[in-house]
Design brief:
This protein has 170 residues and is mainly α. Helix content is 85%, strand content 0%.
Length: 170
């Protein structure tokens, strides 16, 4: 029975991992699923406290990396705080729209989030009175930052998945 639960957990966690690309909390859902299976199996669970704490730490590191790398992209390109805020808000909206409007799995979500970060930073920089040139640079920095932030969070998600898989089957 433990084998079936372990296989099921890994499959469900693959689905949660895919949600990371959409900008959704897939890493935290992997941690929650692992904790739920561990609780359900009780003493038979191969997932100990150390594994769950490690997974939660990786999820937290992924969130921090995504947030700071995304916002730092706009800042590094000379953007203001408003540009960083626009980057974050635009990435969320763009990720959701890209998922529906660009029918290529994963790529549509990432592209939508990057374009949304660009548009959000550009719009709030322009509304803040910045010129077009500076606003465009801020938007470009936000898009690049969003891409690398998503990659960092996805890398953390892969590390969580591998950590749980190793704990379950080694």
């Amino acid at each position: 029975m433990v084998l079936l639960w372990s296989i099921g957990l890994l499959l469900v966690n693959l689905f949660w991992l895919a949600l990371v690309v959409l900008g959704l909390p897939g890493n935290w859902l992997m941690v929650a699923s692992a904790a739920g299976v561990s609780w359900w199996l009780g003493a038979e669970s191969p997932l100990g406290t150390a594994v769950l704490i490690t997974a939660a730490g990786l999820a937290l590191a992924g969130e921090i990396a995504e947030f700071f790398v995304s916002a730092a992209g706009a800042k590094k390109a000379g953007g203001s705080t408003w540009g960083s805020i626009g980057s974050i808000l635009g990435a969320i909206v763009g990720g959701l729209l890209g998922t529906g409007l660009i029918p290529i799995p994963v790529i549509g979500s990432i592209l939508g989030a990057c374009l949304g970060a660009f548009a959000g930073a550009l719009a709030l920089e322009m509304l803040g009175g910045r010129g077009l040139g500076r606003s465009l640079r801020s938007g470009k920095g936000a898009a690049v930052g969003r891409f690398w932030g998503t990659m960092a969070k996805l890398a953390a998600g892969v590390a969580i998945w591998v950590t749980i898989a190793v704990a379950l089957f080694v």
